């Protein structure tokens, strides 16, 4: 057999160089395509970023580890399209940092769950999944309804995402906390400003059920109801 | 020149392999050669990857990528597979796209083929709220009883599925039970009185001269009907009998009158095809007949 490896092992710096070359091939293959990702992922014209309330819900979704059991990626397989709808497009999560595609499904895929069930169902289901789906093995998250939503960091979160290319204007960043309140209060004072900043396609309603209180439940349900509804691109025949 | 000659290692008599030549207090380490089968597997894998580069989509080139000689596209394959699934269902699904649901429901051969599929469609989309057997739960109507908010014919059910109730659909059915107590439309006493009256319904048992009866006549009959029987196509349920959507004990009825109810049924247009909606409508219309166990109050 070749003696290359045997001889290389006898020269320590040669071995180090060999390891670096071998390891960097793997790295390059994974990293190099990302240099052109801005050109390869075509962002649909009607793609909207998450609202501040939905973004807060997304943070709670990550905090509670929902992604450990729920994927947000409908794969391009016939039976997945049959059950969940059109396969997920890369452009749908262009504004997600990080994306939450996942590959582990203990529960169903959530990529298109937005507006599939009512807010009341989501609230009852999150407080006690067995109350509406007797066979469910999902844990209960009753504290979401009892915990007031922390909106103090939303402006900073939007500003961070804006630096990553998500279209949050300075106006959106400055009004993040007020917009989070406005989206859950249809009759509140901030409604007009919210609609002006995020458009009338976005749902404005008391997601958690009580317009008088802004809880983590409002945020999580607002986020869940937005899934698969940030753009119409997958639903338009190509 | 062999390896053991080159660095003077000795051959282990038990295995026939050479040792590394090092000696740690009399312990010597075998220099076992790498298994041939692994080398071959590695070589074959490498060879396969070269062939795959040629046949399949592989390398990114700027905005594009190498398409491969076979021209395979996973998205196309998936959509073709999905189209094949749809074609496989076509012989019994196609009649549902055309409508005329009462005639379809009267065809036993078609029902025998379509209803098992409708059951799976129901489990995937409807069971989360209405339950696996359609018996509902607190806040979600029972689909197996004789009470219908908007009508129980297959065509009416199909329309409810299509536009939803209090949904985001432009043609949505709208049904709002006002918050008589919270919004100050009725005094606390009036809410209490009308609660007692509703609990005493039907009208033959309730006191028609009571304060509750008057409040009921002024505020409730427009939607729930003079006798509280519902079924007026307003989405308002019957208040007579033992079946309640939000619970029938005094505290629950009081909470409903005080705080109102605005139940939401999502619109399924767009998520389900017209044929699937019609199929589900026929299935739901038949649920009551198929769920005798749920008929007990």
UniProtKB/TrEMBL annotation, chain A:
InterPro entries: Cyt_c-like_dom (IPR009056), Cyt_c-like_dom_sf (IPR036909), Cyt_c_oxidase_monohaem-su/FixO (IPR003468). It comes from the Bacteria. The keyword Phosphoprotein does not apply. The keyword Metal-binding applies. It holds the Pfam family FixO. Keywords: Heme, Iron, Membrane, Metal-binding, Transmembrane, Transmembrane helix. GO terms for molecular function: electron transfer activity; heme binding; metal ion binding. Residues 52-228 form the Cytochrome c domain. The chain crosses the membrane at residues 12-35. This is Cytochrome c oxidase, cbb3-type subunit II.
Automatic annotation (TrEMBL), chain B:
The chain crosses the membrane at residues 37-56. Keywords: Cell inner membrane, Cell membrane, Electron transport, Heme, Hydrogen ion transport, Ion transport, Iron, Membrane, Metal-binding, Oxidoreductase, Repeat, Respiratory chain, Transmembrane, Transmembrane helix, Transport. Residues 113-202, 207-288 form the Cytochrome c domain. Its cofactor is heme c. Pfam families: Cytochrom_C, Cytochrome_CBB3, FixP_N. It comes from the Bacteria. Belongs to the CcoP / FixP family. This is Cbb3-type cytochrome c oxidase subunit. It comes from Neoroseomonas lacus.
